[in-house]
Amino acid sequence: MDFLWHKVSETERENIKKEAKAIMDNFSKKLERINKKTEEPIIERDECERQEAQGKESDEMFRKAILNNAPEKNNDFVIGEKGGW
Asked: What is the spatial distance between Cα 77 and Cα 80, in angstroms, rounded to a whole number?
């Protein structure tokens, strides 16, 4: 896999910078052509919040399978790491 990496010469570095600048300039020109003003709202709602409905009973076999596969659990609850992933 040595052929995938090589030291970049100063000439190559300058060429990369020029190509990157050309790409960014071209992209920004295309963005300028986009109409940023919308006349109508994209999402229309009658109410701001959803209505809560009655929950359904869970399938007991599914529940047991999930709890059996959980690495950590407390009675009927799976214990998971908060924000670590």
From this structure: 9
Across the chain, mean pLDDT equals 83
Single-letter code of the amino acid located at 85? W
3-class secondary structure for the chain? CHHHCCCCCHHHHHHHHHHHHHHHHHHHHHHHCCCCCCCCCCCCCCCCCCCCCCCCCCCHHHHHHHHHHCCCEECCEECCCCCCC
Q: What's the predicted TM-score (pTM) here? A: 0.38
| Whether 79 contacts 73, CB under 8 Å | yes
Question: Rounded mean pLDDT of 11-31?
Answer: 94
